[in-house]
Amino acid sequence: MDRQKIKTDLSNYFNAEPQADFRSFYSKAFDIVSDLYNSRNDISAMTGWINLPHDTSLYEKIKGFADKVKEEERYEHLVVIGIGGSSLGSQALIESINSPLWNRLSRAKRKGFLTVDFIDNLDPSVIRNVYNRLKFEKTLFLVVSKTGGTLETIVPILVAREWFGENFYRQCIFVTSEQKGLLFELSKKYSAPLYPIPENVGGRYSIFSSVGLLPAALCGLDIGEIREGLLYAEKLCQEKDIKINTAVSVALCAYFSYVAGKNIFVLMPYSSCLRKFVEWFVQLWAESIGKAKKGSTPAIAIGATDQHSQLQMFSEGPDDKLIGFLKINKHKRDLTICDYSADHASFAQYADYKVGQILNIELEATRKALAESGKPNFLITLPELNEYYLAQTMYIFEVATAVCGFLLGINPFDQPGVDLTKRYTKEALVR
Which residue is catalytic, options 5, 61, 63, 422? Predict the structure, then answer.
């Protein structure tokens, strides 16, 4: 199948950042990419996420399990318990493809796939409300923690144990490290299924392991198309042509803008469905790049919503931001506006446009206005929002994050600042 390609437009970037000498950094950036892929089998390098699209047995196992759950019709609802990289990726996949309103659809419109809730924080009101409305016998629980002992995962488990009794564990699937950790022990004790997270895959890079693929499949996403998108993105990210390699382009944009004093990196998709995608990106970028007093701070904006809140700051505020726009060229199930000029003459200007068309017109108008204000921005255009192109885009941002980290001279795969907070929390809990 000859598919359309994701496109990148850097014209507004180079006009606003004339000092950005990409050519002088080509060799260094492509060497970083080469080293990245050459380290994929080195456990200590934590680059095992590069291997995930090649694990065909994992895709077959997950698809088989998801098909079985659907056919048996035992479960109607999924609760994912996890935080950070154990949750944000699956939320991004499911909401981007199924929309944030997935749970409101009838079982028929969902084609029998599960509705889903995420418990990703220790907010007692949310935990209580989620558990209180569950039909326990119809609920499958997916518990995710690589270490098996994450505080924000264990506490909701203990609450569920109290509410639903010991049988709670028998309706769990555990996604964790193999052969070690608390969740592994619970899985073994209660004969609950376990899907291992590879040792050399960090949480924020784990989206295309069981962490993200399993809930995605249970909620109806085509993980075969996800894999196809990843395999194509892998080829793109190793291209030595900057016009093709979007990951290196994004990394160089972020690097040169940071060096020029732009210490905020705004990612602004024109789609409400991509809000969780940007939240996933924020964790990926912040935990990977923010070290040794270096790194741009990632920020969320959604078009066209934030034209009416943040755009004023972007346009006339401090020159401290790089803005990356994401455009969906063809919106799924778009709506055509009818001619109601008989109701009011001003309605004529909207007649026969599609809603997604108008949204993209607003995007281009925003880009043009920011360019005229001298604000650096770039555009990535997805032909449409589906599993194939979403997976490509997420993989591209994973590689871009890693490349930018190495350009800054930091390790994008550790997180010492987070580990210190975890230690202090555990010390405070000791009685």
Answer: 422
